[in-house]
Every structure is written in structure tokens, then in C-alpha cells.
Amino acid sequence: MSPPASDIFSVKAIPGAGRGIIASHDISKDTTVLNSEPPIAHVLFHEYRKEVCAQCFLYDRGRTLRVKDHGTGKVFCSGRCQQAWVDHTGEQGYKAWQDLHHYIQTKRKGGKGSGGISLVDHRPNAEEIYRSWAKAEKHVSSRMEAGHTLDYPGRAQAKGAVASSIDPDILGYLLSGILYHYQQPDRWREAVLTLVMHDEPYSTTHDLETHCNSFVQLSSIMSASLLGSCTVQVCRALAAVSSHNAFGIRSGGEDGEEYMGYGVYPSASYFNHSCRPNVAKQRIGNAWKFWVTEDVRQGEELCISYLGGDEKDLNVRQRRGHLWEVWGFVCECVRCQREGGASQTVDETISTPVHSSGRFEACGELAILQGLPCVNRHIDTVLFSSPTQ
Ligand SMILES: C[S@@+](CC[C@H](N)C(=O)[O-])C[C@H]1O[C@@H](n2cnc3c(N)ncnc32)[C@H](O)[C@@H]1O
Fold first, then answer.
1. Sign, CA torsion 149/154/158/159
2. C-beta of 193 in contact with ligand 1 (< 6 A)
3. From 219-233, 301-315, 369-383, the region with the lowest mean pLDDT
4. Hey, what's the torsion of the CAs at 346, 348, 353, 355, to 10 degrees?
5. Is the shortest distance between the CB of 229 and ligand 1 below 6 Å?
6. For position 17, what pLDDT does the model report?
7. pLDDT of residue 2
8. Pick from 11, 117, 159, 212: most CB atoms within 10 A?
9. Residue pair 190/54 in contact by the 8 Å Cβ criterion
């Protein structure tokens, strides 16, 4: 499945921007170039759990949706959507969502809500990431060997930081990806492991610990048949791809007012950014439609905009600064090159980025760990919780 195959375009190397999508022939304005598949992993934030349909992502201006699946706590806009979700999720998947729902409710009732953030927090580097995940993995295997149920304290407990806190959003995001891995292992390899990965995707040590804790917590409630997909490799890959590939799930239009969650759509992940995009997108249910907004000539790159709302009106320095700070790349689009010149001059004009590690580095430990090609070295830094595509 990945890179996406199409009569209309092909995926090719783009100087300074990894891979991108190139028109295979002339395309007339308004032609649809891609209808994506549903996400391979996604989350609808816990605060929207009663308001967004788990199947088609419909949001009815904050109203509580009428169909509730009591086993999993999910809501739907109709019985039809509920049935479609149950069919798609499968027996094992349904049981896993049921167990997670029960786990979250029990933890919450027990007063073990999300913990505080350590006062001493920073962006963890590759070594810290490796160590935390190794510790989590060791914890899971030793408890399993001993036949005990798991209850992971996490490294932060010693510092009194996050104790056994739970994060329903990270748990839900990871579970959705674990189920995808379980149901479609071949497509996981083809579609997910070939995406651009961020080696150091955790914005804080708290974020890292939350992911490690979530992995251990999921391991403790997962049925034996799913445990083969609930691995450190799968959970780390899910965090690594979300940074550079996730699309925000918003109500209404592209810049919709409610930011309800995010998802990873591999076939749509090859569109590079341009400050003068020739492709627009719209979410249709749980997938995305992309179409060209002008006539495009054969050989031209098809680009969307990663900027939202008013950001499109910023000047070149501000746009490049913003894309650098949020996405970690220096924009090399035609408009920026025309207005701002070559990117060597950008360093002088861009303020110090938010994050300081991992930028333009060679393949990192994660890629090596998984035997993956490091396809794009412009890899850094998007806050995990705020994808903006
Ligand atoms: C969703 S991926 C797009 C596909 C990606 N180029 C690939 O090789 O798979 C986003 C990443 O592509 C790169 N990218 C996208 N637009 C760019 C641009 N205008 N200039 C430079 N790099 C860009 C950045 O590394 C960004 O993090």
C-alpha cells in the first residue's frame, strides 16, 4: 500500500524534502487525486468521548450522541455506525476496547487520575528513550514470567512525578495501532514502517514515561492472542510516526474550531508542505479526500499546506520560523525560495528552535533497532499532542 500507487501521481525523491508526490500527467483543477484509507491508528480525545462518533468522527456541536456502546464506552451517531465499528473491530478488538474501558474506569474510581508533571522535565534524548523503553520491556517480561498481573510504577514514581497515572488518550492511540498491527501485519510493515519516523518524538520525560506506562498497562490487560502485537517495537513506532505524519481530526472544515483528536493515514503521508499549495484536503468521515486546486502540469509536485488558518498569511521569515519550530524542517517550497532565497540564509533569520536535539541527524537508534531505512533526515520535533497537517 505504501507508497500509494496511482495513475495520477508517483512518489519520488524531492531534493531537501525526502519523498514527495509528483503528477504523472497534466491534471485539471478540482480533480480528486487521493481518497485516503481510514487511519491505521488514531485517538479521539477522552474529553470528546461522548460527542464524537467512534466510527465516522461526526461531531454534532457538542451534543452527546445518542447511541452508546456500554461495553466499550464509545458513542456513535447511529446504530449503523455502531455495527460498522463492531464489525471492523472484530471480536478480539472489541474485547480489548472493553477491557481498556473497564481499566480506565477502575483506575479513575480508585483516584489514580493522571499524575502531575515533574518540575524537572526536559526533552529526552535517544539514550534516555532507549533506557526507559528497555526498563518497561524488562518489567513486562519479568512480571509475565512470574505470572503476576502488572502494575507498572514507572521511573517517575521514584521522583514522585507520575506514579501509576493513566492517560486515556495515549492508551487509546496505542491500542488502535496495536489492533491494526494484529489484524494486518503485512500492511503494518508496508504502510507504517516505511513512513518518516521521528527518533526522539517525546516532548518531555513525562510524555516518554506516559508512553512507557501505557505500554505496560496495555500489556497487563491484553488477551494472550494480542500480546504479540503489544510490543515495545510497535508502541515506539506508533509514537515515532505520529509526530511527522498525523493529521488533526477537527470538527467542521480543515481549520475547524474543535480539535478532537488525530490519526495517521499512511497513503496521505507523502504530501510535502508548500506555502503555496496546489492541493486541498477535506475530511470525509474517518478518511481524507485530496484534490488539486489549480491545473497542474506533469512533473509538478503536489503539495498540501501544513499551516493552518492565519498562519498562511505570515511572511516568509515567520512561516519558515513556524515550520521549523513546529515541524523541524526549513521549508524549501517554491514560494519560500522565491520570497526568502536559499535556506542557508534561514539560520540567521530564524529564532532558536523550541527543541534542540535530533535535528538533521543521521539515522537514529529507533530506525536501526527496527532495521528501517532512514528516509528523511530532516527529522525533529512536533509536540506529540499537536499534529497540524
Ligand atoms: C508527512 S511527511 C511528508 C513526506 C516525507 N517527505 C517523506 O519522505 O516521507 C513530512 C516531512 O516531510 C518533510 N517536508 C515536508 N514538506 C517540506 C518542505 N516544504 N521543505 C522541506 N521538507 C519538507 C519534512 O521532513 C517533514 O517532517
1. negative
2. no
3. 369-383
4. 100
5. no
6. 92
7. 60
8. 212
9. no
Please state whether the predicted TM-score (pTM) of the whole model is above 0.80: yes
- Greater confidence (378 vs 69) lies with 69
Backbone angles phi, psi at 272, to 5 degrees: -80, 170
pLDDT confidence band for 253 (50 / 70 / 90) = low
Q: Write down the pLDDT at residue 343.
A: 57
Listing DSSP states for 18-77 in one string gives SEEEEESS-B-TT-EEEEPPPPSEEEE-GGGTTTB-TTT--B-TTPPPSEEETTTTEEES
Is the distance from CB of 259 to CB of 250 less than 8 angstroms? yes
Q: Is the shortest distance between the CB of 49 and ligand 1 below 6 Å?
A: no
Q: Using a 6 Å cutoff on CB, does residue 209 contact ligand 1?
A: no
Rg of the Cα atoms in the chain: 21
Which amino acid appears at position 327 of this protein?
A: W
The residue type found at 209 is: E
Are 166 and 347 contacting, i.e. CB atoms less than 8 angstroms apart? no
Say how many Å lie between the CA of residue 51 and the centre of ligand 1: 33
What pLDDT does 109 receive?
63
Tens-place pLDDT, residues 356-368: 222 222 223 333 2
Residue type, 13: A
The more confident residue out of 346 and 384 is: 346
- Relative to beta strand 41-44, strand 259-264 is antiparallel
pLDDT digits (tens, 9 = 90+) for 215-225: 999 999 999 99
**Whole-angstrom distance, CA of residue 65 vs CA of residue 56:** 12
| Cα 231–Cα 76–Cα 280 angle in degrees, nearest 5 | 80
Assign residue 299 a region: left if phi > 0, alpha if psi is -120 to 50, beta otherwise? left
* Angle, helices 205-221/126-145, rounded to nearest 10 degrees: 20
Mean pLDDT across the chain:
83
- Whether 152 lines ligand 1, by a CB cut-off of 6 Å, is no
Centre of ligand 1 to C-alpha 266, Å, is 13
* Ligand 1: centre distance to CA 272 (Å): 5
**Rounded Cα–Cα distance for residues 102 and 174 (Å):** 16
Domain segments of the chain as ranges: 90-244
